[in-house]
Design brief:
The protein has 466 residues and is α+β, with helices and mostly antiparallel strands. The chain has 21 helices and 9 strands. The chain folds into 3 domains: 143 residues, Malonyl-CoA decarboxylase, oligemerization domain (Butyryl-CoA Dehydrogenase, subunit A, domain 3); 134 residues, Aminopeptidase; 143 residues, Aminopeptidase, CATH 3.40.630.
Length: 466
């Protein structure tokens, strides 16, 4: 047993509890402890197999073959056993700390002398490359390797908070994916009713905004007055990474129901002046943090403009998924900031002169029954305008959909009462939906405003939140 192992054991005995053992300690042991998944012998074999994958003497083809064998073995493991594999990758394939320290010292010395530091920088960069990166790269060589790595990260993500030892592995995967899935390597493809059935089935499975209920539903979304585009990667040729559904209309849509009406006739494309992005779905949890949604919209706008020169307006019809949760926490403060006249109107509307937040929220539980002049409805609209047009955290909109579109240069254009009357829409936002407008001449201006902590909004939204 090493000195570190003996100290850890002594510390555990003194505390009366057994601390989790490192991979090194477990592989040096003979028996596994309760709660440990893979046996020491299995861990030693797994480490040897993965070390063989990164052997510099192997060709890429042979390394890929060995990686595929390990991936096949990994697929047979339980969740706890897979976690042991992650820990092996994290702890035993880390960069060499001594080499990094030496390279850093050489780089600092070169910079301080004011001379040529190029070679020192190269040595530092090479020292920072971990064996773990080499291991993951060789897993990607084999045909199913990219799928294996994406699924591995998807499984890994929920465990980061409870086990920080996994953070380095997750960060390494995200960094590699950001390079491998750069938009320069992605293909934009239209998905239509003539696409393979297996691809259309994936639209049904991955649709994250408005559930696809049937084949007739998806056929409606792929009709002649609609377009659907997705980004594809050459290593995952039949798997859309993200896709967007578009309706071609002569106006900015204020509700999702007409767009999903399977009985409605297809629109007249010769009259189409407006493209409505009504659903954007990312499909791969394992690619979380890899950004290509903004590029998707830009590429789709370019494609649509080329096909339909009359299109002048590009806007979304978007959900407001965080509104109800935010309002539950902030209703009291919003009510306190409401002027006396509006508070009195709210009190009369709900039959409670001394109006409080709980009473107003109860009155809002049947939003579709509220008339246009209802003080409760108007209060909800003002609250949502405040939520979308002013609420920031760390300089970014608190609503995830707003964060996406505003970050791409759109502005908050219009709120739509009853825009989504589905159970999901009512649960998320009392049925409210929002249009984000992509004014192609002002995208950079809007991004600059957001960087200054100011959300770009239309006059209508500005009036509501005032």
């Amino acid at each position: 047993m090493t000195g570190n192992s003996m100290r850890n054991l002594a510390d555990s005995m003194r505390s009366g509890a057994r601390a989790p053992r490192s991979m090194e300690e477990r592989m040096e042991a003979t028996l596994r402890r309760p709660g440990e998944a893979l046996s020491p012998r299995a861990l030693r074999k797994a480490l040897a197999d993965m070390q063989a994958i990164v052997d510099a003497r192997l060709s890429e083809v042979e390394a890929g073959r060995r990686a595929a064998e390990v991936a096949q073995w990994y697929a047979t493991l339980s969740a706890d056993e897979r976690r042991d594999v992650w820990l092996l990758m994290s702890e035993r394939f880390a960069p060499d700390a001594a080499r990094i320290q030496a390279a850093r010292a050489q780089y600092d010395a070169a910079v301080s002398r004011g001379g040529e530091s190029g070679q020192a920088e190269v040595r530092l960069r090479r020292a920072l490359v971990s064996p773990r990166a080499r291991l993951l790269q060789r897993f990607a060589v084999a045909e199913p390797g990219m799928r294996f790595l994406i699924d591995l990260r998807a499984e890994l993500l929920p465990h980061l908070r409870e086990d920080t030892r996994l953070v380095a592995l997750e960060a390494e995967l995200e960094h590699l994916f950001s390079t491998w899935f750069d938009v320069a390597f992605l293909d934009l493809r239209r998905i239509s009713w003539d696409s393979p059935a297996s691809l259309i089935e994936k639209l049904i499975r991955y649709e994250a905004v408005h559930d696809i209920r049937s084949w007739s539903d998806v056929k409606n979304r792929l009709d002649s007055d609609r377009r659907c585009y997705g980004f594809f990667h050459p290593r995952l040729p039949n798997e859309p990474l993200i896709f967007v559904e578009v309706a071609l209309l002569d106006h900015i849509s204020d509700g999702i129901t007409p767009l999903l009406d399977e009985a409605a006739a297809a629109g007249d494309l010769s009259r189409a002046t407006t493209a409505i992005f009504y659903s954007i779905s990312s499909t791969q949890v394992g690619l979380r943090g890899v950004s290509f949604g903004d590029s998707l919209i830009k590429r789709v706008v370019e494609t649509l403009s080329s096909e339909f020169p009359k299109l002048k307006v590009f806007a979304t019809l978007s959900p407001v998924p965080g509104f109800r949760g935010w309002l539950a926490k902030n209703a009291a403060a919003l009510l306190e900031a409401t002027d006396d006249k509006r508070r009195a109107e709210l009190g009369r509307a709900i039959g409670q002169p001394d109006v409080d937040a709980a009473a107003v929220l109860r009155a809002a539980e049947q939003p579709l029954a509220l008339e246009a002049r209802s003080p409760v409805r108007q209060w909800l609209m003002r609250a949502c305008a405040r939520y979308l047009g002013a609420e920031l955290k760390d300089g970014q909109p608190v609503d995830p959909v707003a964060r996406f579109h505003l970050g791409n240069g759109a502005r908050v254009e219009r709120l739509n009462w009853g825009g989504d009357p589905s159970a999901k829409g009512l649960k998320q936002s009392y049925g409210l939906m929002v249009n984000y407008l992509y004014d192609l001449k002002r995208l950079d201006k809007h991004r600059a405003l957001l960087a200054q902590g100011r959300v770009p909004v239309s006059r209508e939204i500005d009036g509501l939140r005032g």
